[in-house]
């Protein structure tokens, strides 16, 4: 394992903590991250001076510098997926989300929202879940390598069987377990190195809307295949 700088690691832990909490104090950072108040203050002050966080009335939040840096991130998969996602949104009139894997989590990185319905889906970029907690995550896990799959599933035979069914089918379709009232159809996207992401169509659990998306499974599979081809060509 590469050598890790404790100071840098501590600062990054604070940024992740603020991302989850939204706003926090020195005392909360010290308590929850196991730091002394002196170390917590020094790390927070450094991040504040550099613009990565901001402080208002003693409460720290993520700062504008992070947003500015994020604009320079080049997600090859996002660039490859955008036009195909837009086509799906136009045809299905539902929200389409692009999700990538970040270790044991799924991370939403791009979303195109359909404005054709009063009831819409909220699945913003930056949303994280455990890889096995959503359809878009499960479909990535199902098409991962066998060692990774065994590590994720462990002794959970029911989950192992579910992922095997997803792999045979080629996609997942059904209600989202952790978001009541939401239904998804998700398909994996491949790159040279294996599964890179998933593209998912999300809709409220309205019978007619679910049926319409279900009938369009071939379109979503075709879009994922086109994204995979474009992504692989760009990486070659």
TrEMBL record:
GO biological process: one example: negative regulation of DNA-templated transcription
InterPro entries in the cross-refs: GAF-like_dom_sf, HTH_MetabolicPath_Reg, Tscrpt_reg_IclR_C, Tscrpt_reg_IclR_N, WH-like_DNA-bd_sf, WH_DNA-bd_sf
Domain IclR-ED: 65-233
Record domain HTH iclR-type: where: 5-64
SUPFAM superfamilies, per the entry: GAF domain-like (SSF55781), Winged helix' DNA-binding domain (SSF46785)
Keyword annotations: DNA-binding, Transcription, Transcription regulation
GO molecular function, one term: DNA binding
Membrane spanning stretches: none
Listed name of the protein: MarR family transcriptional regulator
Source species of the chain: Actinomadura darangshiensis
